[in-house]
Amino acid sequence: MPELPDVECFKSYFQRTSLNKKIVKIEAPAKELIKKCKFEDFQRKLVGKKFKRVWRRGKFMIVEIEGLPEKLIFHFGMTGDLKYRRKDAPRTGEDRFSRLIFRFENGWELRWINIRKFGKVWLLKDPTEIPLIKKMGPEPLEFKKEEFLRLLKLHSQKNLKAFLLDQKDIAGIGNIYSDEILFQAKISPHRKIESLSKKEKEILFKKMRSVLKKAVPLLWTEFPKSWLIWHREDKICPQNKNHHLIREIIAGRAAIWCPKCQK
DNA sequence: GGTAATGTTAGACT
DNA sequence: TAGTCTAACATTAC
After folding, report:
1. Are A102 and A42 in contact (CB under 8 A)?
2. A2 touches strand B (CB under 7 A)
3. Each residue of A16-34: b (16+ CB within 10 Å) or e?
4. What pTM did the predictor assign?
């Protein structure tokens, strides 16, 4: 789930549920996912404190803590989620995938869920100690068209899908949204950047923004039916049900696309 | 039992 | 140097 719009959603969820509540206990059934910090130190530094502020950078969620120079940094991997609930709420199927649990004074708890253990958590004074954050490209909902064109020029030899996926080029876009953007821009994921016309570059910029922007406030189940995302399994093109979507490995990932609509 | 999964990274290769 | 490709990581669901 966790690409830019999804992490943005986690951020607002965290904001609504977990700020300004005293942490009374922390449990970590998968301590190895806490990086560069022993669990004992992690616990000692955070228990008794409150989360103060939260923001997002690329696919990372960063949390400021009251009275602590360190920030708590989450990466959700491929299967991350957050769940805020009462401590005594009935058990659910997700329970065994809760890798980190923050208990609050009010009797509620925040669970960081991670099915495959590809997510990671850090407690660092400077988020740029994480190499990927240090090298991270600009935020696609913040920069202007001129900046986008500059980035394209900088990587003119690169494959387009590889470019969209590379966090060092642009922050926050992953496999699902890169497919969606390319589908809506009607451009093949095989294209090399230098082959794009001026018009295609502009369409690409517009679609990148509109897809990400539209997705932020919506649940996945609310995405427009015209989106590719609904058809990753059935392989029916949402533009024309006679078109058959194909699945190919491009830039190391399974790309789903319509060879008839995307040129 | 095999395969694929919304991510990242290291190392080898062109 | 830039870009591509593969394997590896850990684990589940189909």
Report:
1. no
2. yes
3. ebbeebebeebebeeeebb
4. 0.97
pLDDT tens for chain A, residues 1 to 263: 799 999 999 999 999 999 999 999 999 999 999 999 999 999 999 999 999 999 999 999 999 999 999 999 999 999 999 999 999 999 888 889 999 999 999 999 999 999 999 999 999 999 999 999 999 999 999 999 999 999 999 999 999 999 999 999 999 999 999 999 999 999 999 999 999 999 999 999 999 999 999 999 998 889 999 999 999 999 999 999 999 999 999 999 999 999 999 99
Which nucleotide is closest to A176, CA to C1'?
A: B6
Residue with CA nearest C1' of nucleotide C2: A157
- Return positions of chain C under 7 A from a protein CB: 2-7, 9-13
Choose, from A3, A8, A109, A180, the residue flagged as catalytic. A3
Are the C-beta atoms of residues A68 and A125 closer than 8 Å to each other?
no
| Domain A4-135 is found in CATH 1.25.40.10 | no
Ranges of each domain in chain A: 4-135, 145-257
- Residue of A49, A83, A168, A253 marked active site: A253
CATH 1.25.40.10 fits A145-257, yes or no: no
A169 touches strand B (CB under 7 A): no
Give catalytic status of residue A59 as yes or no: yes
| C1'-nearest nucleotide to the CA of A80 | B6
Q: Which 3-state string (H, E, C) describes A144-184?
A: CHHHHHHHHHHCCCCEHHHHHHCCCCCCCCCHHHHHHHHHH
